[in-house]
Amino acid sequence: MAKTDNVTIGALFGVIVITLSVCSALSSNRENVPTAEEHVKLYQDINGDKESIQEDIKRGVERLAIPGIIPNVEDIYLCTGAEIDADTVIEAVDPAVDSDIVNHASLIGCPSAPAADQQVWVCRNDNDVCGSSPSVVIYSWARHGKGVPFEKPARVSDVGVEYVVLRVHYDDMSEVPDSSGVAIEYTVDDVDEEPEEASDEEVEDIVAQLQRLKSPENPENINFMRHLINDVLSSEGDEVLKQVVSWPEQDEGLGQVSGLDVCPGDHLWAFHRGEHEWLDDTFDADNIYTKDRDSAIDVDTVVELDQETGAVLKGWGNHTFYLPHGLTIDEEMNFWLTDVALHQVFKYDHTGSTQLMVLGERFVPGGDHQHFCKPTDVAVHEKSGDFFVADGYCNNRILRFNKEGEVIDVWESKKGDDDGGKAFNVPHSLAMIVDHNALCVADRENGRIQCFDVDSGELVKSFKNGILGGRVFAIAYNPVVGFLYAVNGEQIDNKDVVGMIIDYNTGDQRYCNQIGECNELVFKPSVGKFVMPHDLAVSKDGEKVYVGDAKADDIVKFESN
C-alpha cells in the first residue's frame, strides 16, 4: 500500500486465488501524504488508541482492484476475484476508483469459484461472473447513479458466498494502466485463533486507507447498493412489505387508478380516470371508443400525492384524456402517458403545460408504425434516450423508438410460436432494469414476466409462479435491493389477488430461514384487500412500494418491514 506495489489479501481473503496490484492509498496526491504519526492520530480519532489497533490484527481495510490492466477496448467489463474467509464480516464498502472512464464498480459474491480462473477476465454478461451459480451483488458504485451507502454488515458464512468478484465497467478506452476497485472494511470473528499483533507498517497501511475513505477528495459514495437478502428479510419469515394502514389520512378522491410512478425528486404521481370507467361497452368489436368524444375527463388526471399523508398536492391533465392507462416519469422529469381510448402515447414536460410529443392517431386504432391499439405503458432507456411502448391489448408487441420518436425495432411473434419469448398476450406493464441493461415485460394473459437485453432484444430471464396464477398485471423494479415486484390483478383461476417479490439476480421467489422453513415472498393489504391492482411504484430509497387499484379507486402504501 504506502510502500509496496503488489500486495495480497491476507486476513480478509484467506486462500488467495490472485495477486492484486494495489496502488498507494494516496498515490495520486503524494505531496499530502501524512506522516506515520499523523496516520496513527487519524486512526485514534476514529477507532481508539494505537494499542487497541495492535490488539486487533483482524480488523482492517483491503482494496480489491483491477491489477494494472490497460482498458484498450471501449465499453468493456473486466472482472477479478478472490476467495474470502467464511469468518469475515464485511463492515463497509467504498469506491476506490482511479480512472474517469470507469462507469460502474461492483462487488459480487459467488457461492463457488468464479466463471474464469484467470487473474482478469472479460465479464459483460451476468453469467460471466459466477458462471451458472447464483450471484449476490453486495455493492455497486455508479459514477452517475443514485443510491444509498452500504449500511448493514454482512457475515460471509451467513450470506453463503465463498468468493468475491470485482466487476468494473469502462465506458471508454485508455492507454493508461488502471487499478480501480473497491475498498472493503472488514473484521474477522474467529474465536478459535488468538489475534496476532499488528506491525507498525500494517497499522500505517490500515490508517492510510482510512485516510483515503475519509478524505474530501474521495468520490461521493453514491451507488446502487443491494442489501443482502438476509438483511432485508427477517429470519422468522415476517412480512417483507407491510401495509401502512393509516395512509392515506383521507380519501384522495381519485377515480380508477391506472398508473403510478415516483419521479427523480422522490415525488409520488398517479394517473387516474376520474368519473370515466372501462366497461364492457366502452369499445366495439373493432376497438373503437364508443363513448362521447366531446367529453374528456374534466378533473386533473395527473396528480401528485404527499408520500407521508396521501393528500393531493397538485395536478394537471383535465379536459385532455379519456381513458388513462400508463404513467412513466423519466430522469429528465418528462411525463410519458398512454390513453387506450385515444390509442395514443404522450410526452409532457414536468409542469404538464407543454406537450413535447404525441404518437398515434387520435381515436384510431391500428397495427402499423404510425398507430397503436390500446397502448399500455412506456419505459425509457436513460443512457440512449430510446423509449419502448407496450402496444398492448390488440397488437401484442413492444415498439422501440429513438428519442426523436422514430421506430427502430419491434418485438413481436410472427411465427405462431413463442419466438424468443416474444409471443406476448397483452404486454401490460414495463420495467427498465437499469443495472442489468434489461427491459422486463408483464405479459399479462400469459401469466409471466419476460426480461430482454435492451440492445440485442434477446430473452435473458423469464419468471412465472403458480401463486400469481394465469395473469400478471404490473411490475416495478427496486434497484436498491435488486427486487422485482409484481401484482397479479383480477384473476380468472380463483387465485388470491396478491403482490409477489422476485430477486432479479437469483430468481428466488421464496425466503428460507435458518431452520429450513420457507415462505413465498408475497405481500397484500393487512386491512381490506386488493381488487384489481393495476400498477406499482417504488420510492427512490427503495423502502416504500405503492400499488394503484383500478377497481377500488385507491392506492395502497407498503413499507419495508
Describe the structure.
Helix content is 7%, strand content 35%. Helix 1 packs across helix 4. The chain is mostly beta strands and 561 residues long. The strands form 10 sheets. The chain has a 5-stranded antiparallel β-sheet with strand order 7-4-10-6-8, with no helix packed on it. The chain has a 4-stranded antiparallel β-sheet with strand order 3-11-5-9. Strands 12-37-36-35 form a 4-stranded antiparallel β-sheet, with no helix packed on it.
Give the secondary structure arrangement, pairings included.
Elements: E1 6-7, E2 20-21, H1 36-47, H2 50-55, E3 59-65, E4 76-83, E5 88-96, E6 102-110, E7 121-122, E8 136-142, E9 154-155, H3 156-159, E10 163-170, E11 181-188, H4 200-214, H5 229-232, E12 241-243, E13 257-262, E14 268-272, E15 302-305, E16 312-316, E17 324-329, E18 335-339, E19 344-348, E20 355-359, E21 375-380, E22 387-391, E23 397-401, E24 407-411, E25 427-433, E26 438-443, E27 448-453, E28 459-463, E29 474-478, E30 483-487, E31 499-503, E32 510-512, E33 518-520, E34 522-523, E35 533-538, E36 544-549, E37 554-560
Head-to-tail CA distance between termini: 41 Å
Secondary-structure-based class equals mainly beta
Sheet bearing the most strands, described?
A: 5 strands, antiparallel
Strand content: 25-35%
What is the tally of helical segments?
5
